Amino acid sequence: MIFENVSRNYLRLLRATEHFCTQPHSYYREIFRNEVYQAARERNVVIDLGAAYGLFSLYVYDQAKVIYAIEPASSVFNTLESNIERYKLTKIKPFKLAIAGSKGKRTLVGGSGPSKNYSLFFKKGNRKEIVPTMTLASFMKKNKIKRVDILKIDVEGAEEEIFAAKDFPKVASKIHFIIGETHFDNWKDQNSNWGKVKKLLEKNGFTTAWNKTTRVFTASKT
């Protein structure tokens, strides 16, 4: 069974409303039907990077103690925040910012493809906004997060710089399990950045695995 107890009720809400998930149905299938994130079994303190409309947060909601849902795009974040309030998802704490390799401000660009994803690395797009950025270590320190049971990361190409941040080694030992999706160094040639991400994670003591078909990776402490 994909869902237990409360999650089944939320799934019905998802199906019944366009407000919770306005992304293409392929993403809905990715999270719920295909269960590409099914390895995320130990659920307690969760950080959801690239939370979008909150589908992964919803997926782990029942067993989570608290979920820090981080989403930088204003239009997407507004929908996420609205539905957290509407459906009383009290375990989910939303944050509007981008986790990156350093603190500052960056241009977030919305792509023009069918998925309408946002990225700090897109060169073209008709939707742009300036967003605050900080490192994962800074975010954990600011929010007094001492342990992360699951770090989910789907950040459209920013994976490498997040794990390459100078202060990432300070919090690597506090993260039990990472699951996420790799993206492309070169979107035209579709060369995955997994090799670089793998090297950075293993350098910080993680054992890694990667599914080439789904481009989903996992990393856990040895």
**Broad structural category:** alpha/beta
Shape: globular
Q: Can you count the beta strands?
A: 13
Separation of termini?
29 Å
Strand content: 25-35%
For the largest sheet, list the strands in their spatial order.
3-2-1-8-9-13-12
Question: C-alpha Rg, in Å?
Answer: 16 Å
CATH architecture identity: 3-Layer(aba) Sandwich
For this structure, the CATH topology is Rossmann fold
Instruction: Give the % helix.
Output: 25-40%
For the biggest sheet, the summary is: 7 strands, mixed
Order of helices and strands: HHEHEHEEEEEHEHHEEEHEE
Q: What can you tell me about this protein's structure?
A:
The protein is an alpha/beta fold. It has a single domain, classed as Vaccinia Virus protein VP39 (Rossmann fold, 3-Layer(aba) Sandwich), CATH 3.40.50.150. Helix content is 30%, strand content 27%. The chain has 8 helices and 13 strands. The chain has a 7-stranded mixed sheet with strand order 3-2-1-8-9-13-12, with helices on both faces. Strands 4-7-5-6 form a 4-stranded mixed sheet. Strands 10-11 form a two-stranded antiparallel ribbon. A hairpin with a 4-residue loop joins β12 and β13. The longest helix is centred in the middle third of the chain and has 13 residues. The protein is globular and about 40 Å long. The N terminus is likely disordered.
